[in-house]
Amino acid sequence: MATEETGDQLGQTTRLRLQKLKGQLFEVSLVAATLVGILALLVLFAYISVDAFRPGAASPVWFLAYFGTLVAPMAAFTLYARRKPAVQETNARAFAAVFGGLLLSVVMYAVIDSLSPYDVFTYVFFASIPPALVLTYDRTTDDRTYTGPAIPVSIIVGLGVAAVLYDFVRGPIGIAAEWIMYFGLVTVPAALLVARLTASRRGRRTGAIAGGAVAAGGLAVALASIVAGIDASLPVVLFSGSVVPTSYVVWRSVRTNPEGRVGVVGPFVLIGGTLLGASLVEGFGIDNPDTFLTPNLLLQSWDGLTASNAGVYPQIVGSIVVVGFMAVLAFPVGIGAAIYLEEYAPSSGWGGRLATLLEVNISNLAGVPSVVYGLLGLALFRRTLGFGTGIVVSAAGTLGLLILPIVIVSTQEALRSVPDDLRQGSYGMGASRWQTLREVVLPEAIPGTLTGTILALARAIGETAPLVIIAVATTTYSPPSGLFSSATALPLQIFAASANAKPEFRHGVVPAAAVVLLVLMLLMNATAIVIRNKYGRGN
Amino acid sequence: MSKESETGIGSLQRSGFVVRKERLYARLIAASAVLTILVTVGIILALSGRAFSFWSEISPVTFFTGTSWSPVIAQSYGVLPLISGTLIVTVFSALIALPVGLAAAIYLSEYASDTARSILKPALEILAGVPTVIYGYMALVYVTPLIDSVLPLSAQVIPPGVPVLPEFTIVMPSLRTFNALSASFVVGIMIIPMVSSISEDALSAVPDSLRQAGYGLGSTKFDVSTKIVVPSATSGIVASYVLALSRAIGETMAVTMAMGMSPQMPYFPNVLKNLAESGQTITAAMVQIAGADSLGSGPTYEAMFALGMTLFVITLTMNVLAELVRRRFREEY
Q1: What gap in Å lies between CA A55 and CA A49, rounded to an integer?
Q2: pLDDT of residue B165
Q3: Residue B271 carries which DSSP code?
Q4: Cβ of A439: how many Cβ atoms within 10 Å?
């Protein structure tokens, strides 16, 4: 066959080739554009972490030591686990139990400590008695219509009783040792939880034994620390908040999941590697990095003169207290509003118009700049309600108003993704609207709601401008001691300290504080993304 | 009516308490929804009360046309320098974020594999999740020296020898410690995801039949993306642009920390000088007033609310505009 190319065909091929080239160039530039923002941020993160961590001062042996004890074993384990889904699953669970438990217990200890364990115990005790009574009654009777609504009411009643009796009760309670408060606040709930989880799988008797074992363990830890002559509070909290969940997960995985049981080793490889590396570095006198990410940073209060003494402990606890109380205020309202819009709001008539108005209003609220929320908080809490300047309640309330639209929109999406068949099936079985919502729709929507609420928390913990506007103190030397005491927050300290031009502050301790904030926020985002991927719409 | 059928109906009806309980829950839930309207009302009341008492002391004409903002020292309340600062940051951050965000949206919606998308989308979301105080710190401490190391630049637009005013030489002088360029840079980065995620939603909503029709006519992927998909999604893209600009206008901490506290009227015609100099945005001025000790009274304190009102009206208008654009020009498929 003749394969002579005429000039026309030649032109055609060149044109096609040019078009292909154009397409490729376009795609490359798209990829570049997608990456440019991410890369710029990564470079800036690198700058900030190098300043905080100062790896330059460390000797090469330091890196070698940690590579050998930490990075290489972790990499080997990860590669091994990647090929076995069962191991990976167990590994993820063990990581969540170990580090989640550790984080949770440290946070609980810090918050309860700053709010005074005796006060927290008094309120929690009185607030938990009435619902416990209601639940006991619920067990003994067949007529359960009243118990649902009775529980929140009974909690409020309990809190009211606590407030009234506070002056009489606080004295006698104050006689008891501090660790008993932590035992009641952390160990008892942990024991009840373990008992319940075990009872649901292996019968009531085993459950009671397991719960009793946890409580006995807590007492043993307390006794051991008293004998050793150290304050028993932190050991008790650490035992109940991290040893108990870790052993529960390890025990369950080993017993019930023979294929995946190797996965529980994961977190211990990490911890063991770190300890081994540290002991090697210590033992051979290897030069450490000149890091600003020290225990001082996490445990001390701010020192504007000596960088090595400057810490952000009050600010971290303040951020957690403010954001935690904000969650208590804002999440019920936000989730309630989302439920109304998705499940209750009529689609026509006045109700329908109201629903449209609400939707438009919420999307507009999401676009209001955060400083304006600060002005709202200032006017509402300081002017109208007459609260003091920059207290926890005002800060939490202001941030709560700010994140309300985020919570509503994400919860709405979660509710929308629950298939309608489930609702219809529930109605068909004779369930009422509220029963359907509580038993069918909300459980299905939990992962989506959780993702949205965690993202909202991450947003709130980094928010600065509204707190500056409501005049939260930038530098305080103690964490908030109650809901009506002065608030403080980590981003505010970074803002205030950014004016400090001393090199060891500008390129040292302030970046280190920023790294702490970034780690908090990235952890929250990562948790949200993991939950979303695990329970995403695809599955 | 027989007795049997009456009991039949009776057993199908819920007890009075259940009905009342259902009603109670429905009301509680509706109340929390209505609370969101109260938030808006609260914002408007909180802002307008003090803002109008400010404008009764300082006339709105002086406020909106004054070219000097110096509330504490000179008692002059002209908002134009602040608006100019806000505009400079908004325009230059838009120069970064709008093209980059749209390109990212096209890539994610048209080109990226599922794996790439599942990594890049959360990574882009992180850009919007980083606390703005950290963006501000990075701009102040890292971005400014980094850019300054390549400055000053000067490029003559008009060849030498032609007698014109020296101002028409484009000169990028070296940066001040506080400058608009680094602030605009970080604001640009942080609003990229705003553009990319909303635009991507709009692009993904374009029905596949349009793309297939394009390919059927012999178009390349480039042609399909740029001539079919992007034009069909224009309304969504424009809406994302407006929302991103509104976010840039309301951005506070990054501009406060990186751009400084010295309000300036814009430099002209050497526009690049605006980037090298420090300035002050509306939001930064509010932070400055809130940080000062004058809290609680006086026209300066009330000026904060007047600024807030101005900001609220601007951003609200833009958000409503974005919504209108999205509704009005949406192509129905």
Answers
A1: 9
A2: 57
A3: T
A4: 11
Q: How many domains does chain B have?
A: 1
Nearest residue of chain B to residue A22 (CA atoms): B222
* CB-based contact A79:A89 (threshold 8 Å): no
Of the candidates B33, B106, B319, the beta carbon closest to that of A364 is on B319
Tens digit of each residue's pLDDT (9 = 90 or more) over B269-314: 677 777 778 888 999 999 988 887 655 677 888 888 999 999 999 9
Q: How far is A89 from chain B (nearest CA, A)?
A: 20
A517 near B CB under 8 A? yes
In this structure, are residues A445 and A415 in contact, taking their beta carbons and an 8 Å threshold? yes
B182-200 tens-digit pLDDT: 999 999 999 999 999 999 9
**pLDDT-derived band at B131, boundaries 50, 70, 90:** very high
C-alpha triplet A262, A264, A268: angle, nearest 5°: 115
Is A507 near chain B, with CB under 8 Å? yes
Distance CA A364, CA A353 (A): 17
The 3-class SS string of A19-77 reads HHHHHHHHHHHHHHHHHHHHHHHHHHHHHHHHHHHCHHHCCHHHHHHHHHHHHHHHHHH
Q: pLDDT tens digits for B57-81?
A: 888 888 888 888 888 777 788 889 9
**CA-based nearest distance B316→chain A, Å:** 7
Nearest-CB residue to A529 (from B99, B122, B196): B122
Residue B36 maps to a domain: no
DSSP letters of A148-188?
HHHHHHHHHHHHHHHHHHHHHHHHHHHHS-HHHHHIIIIIH
Q: Are the C-beta atoms of residues B140 and A506 closer than 8 Å to each other?
A: no
Cβ–Cβ < 8 Å for B291, A468:
yes
Mean pLDDT of chain B: 84
User: CATH number of the domain that B254 lies in?
Assistant: 1.10.3720.10
**Distance between CA A532 and CA A79 in Å, rounded?**
24
How many C-beta atoms surround the C-beta of residue A436 within 10 A?
A: 19
Instruction: Give the three-state DSSP class for B26.
Output: helix
Residue A525: the pLDDT is 86
Q: Is A19 on the interface with B (CB under 8 A)?
A: yes
Question: Residue B213: inside a domain, yes or no?
Answer: yes
SS3 call for B153: strand
Contact criterion met (CB below 8 Å) for A239 and A221: yes
Candidates A35, A44, A331, A354: best to mutate against B (most CBs of B within 10 A) is A44
Distance CA B231, CA B239 (A): 13
Full domain range(s) for residue B238: 58-137+177-328
Across the A:B interface, residue pairs with CB atoms under 8 Å apart total: 261
Q: Determine the distance from the C-alpha atom of residue A225 to the mean position of all C-alpha atoms in its chain, rounded to a whole number.
A: 30
Those residues of chain A that have pLDDT short of 50 are 1-2, 537-539
- For the cut 90, the answer to whether the pLDDT of residue B135 exceeds it is yes
Query: What does the pLDDT read at residue B154?
Result: 60
- A174 CB near a chain B CB, below 8 Å? no
Higher pLDDT, A305 or B93: B93
Question: Considering the domain boundaries, does residue B52 fall inside one?
Answer: no
Cα–Cα distances in angstroms (integers) from residue A340 to residues A351, A358, A429, B18, B59, in the given order: 11, 10, 23, 19, 44
Give a yes or no: residue B267 inside a domain: yes
For residue B2, the model assigns a pLDDT of 42
Distance between CA atoms of residues B223 and A22, nearest Å: 10
CA–CA dist A331, A411 (Å, integer): 10
| B11 burial type by CB count under 10 A (0-12 exposed, 13-18 middle, 19+ buried) | exposed
Chain B 138-197, CB below 8 Å of chain A: which residues? 138, 140-143, 189, 192-193, 196
Is B107 in CB contact (< 8 Å) with chain A? yes
pLDDT at B26 over 70: yes
User: For residue A275, which phi and psi values (nearest 5 degrees)?
Assistant: -65, -45
Q: Does A501 touch chain B (CB under 8 A)?
A: no
